[in-house]
Amino acid sequence: NPIGKVSTIKVIQLFLVGIFLNFLLPVRGGEVAKSLMLKRIANIPISRSLPTVAMDKALDLMPALFIMAIVPFLGIHMDIKLWLILGAVGGLLIGLIGFVAIAAWKRIVAIKLLQKLTSFLPKGLSSKVEGFATGFVDALLAGASQPKVFLPAVGLTIVAVIFDGLFAMLAFWTVGLQIPYGTAIFGYTVYNMFYILPTPPGQVGSNEAVGLLVFHGLLQQPAAPVTAMFVFSHPWTALIMTVSAMICLSGLGLTLSSAMKVQTEGSKAGDADTNAAAGSGQVVRA
């Protein structure tokens, strides 16, 4: 059963706001913000919606495994930094898949494992972590056990990667560098993997640096047009993200300031969510 009913329009609005916050903030705060805004507009517990964000990010990481698999056959020499990034991304994805498998095998083992992984938190949070872990595992299992929903999500991820490659190719063509589509989609997919790392606010400088590392350092494209492409596309994508996010925030009945404050409000609501989940978890174990 779905964890809540949210219209497709609102999902798109939340997604675009999340992308904007990821762009604006030095850490990937947009992912958590989506769960907090869902709590605010649809009263969906954070412990239930956060696993959907985890699954969404897992789908985003899938191209990393594909790249690691095909690189040896392409004859491309990858810098150690690129291998480290791809290895980290692939490790995260494999870890999530393994965690889902453990949860499907023995739910209580997965809950205890998640609690152990968060044992470094202050003691006052231990009971809240227990409740959150229970809700997280249950929601993650619910999502993974619905292939009619999960498989189309995989398909849409593939479509998104295809359009990413098309965007990169056309952007390079705009600055006069006629690169083939295969090079564009490969390079831009590797480029996107770097955004598991913290970035400066507005990704100022990081876009250009990573773009040079991938397209010039790895794919041997001329440095000048590569730099020109990212300098050209950066402000335009920033403008599109900002305008679309403002429109979506308005549609959600929020403002930028309230969206930034929603984390503070959501933390209080999250306490109630986790306490409630803890209670339900104890009933299940009994």
Explain this structure to me?
- The chain is an all-alpha fold and 286 residues long.
- It has one domain (8-285).
- The chain is 80% helix and 0% strand.
- The protein is built from eleven helices and no strands.
- The protein starts with 7 loop residues before the first helix and ends with a helix.
- Residues 263-286 have low confidence and may be disordered.
Short description:
This protein is mainly alpha-helical.
Features:
single chain, 286 residues, mainly alpha, 11 helices, disordered C terminus
> How many independent structural domains?
1
Number of discrete helical segments: 11
Strand content: under 5%
Say what oligomer this is. Answer: single chain
Fold topology:
Blueprint: H1 8-24, H2 29-42, H3 46-74, H4 80-105, H5 107-117, H6 126-144, H7 147-174, H8 181-193, H9 206-218, H10 223-251, H11 256-285
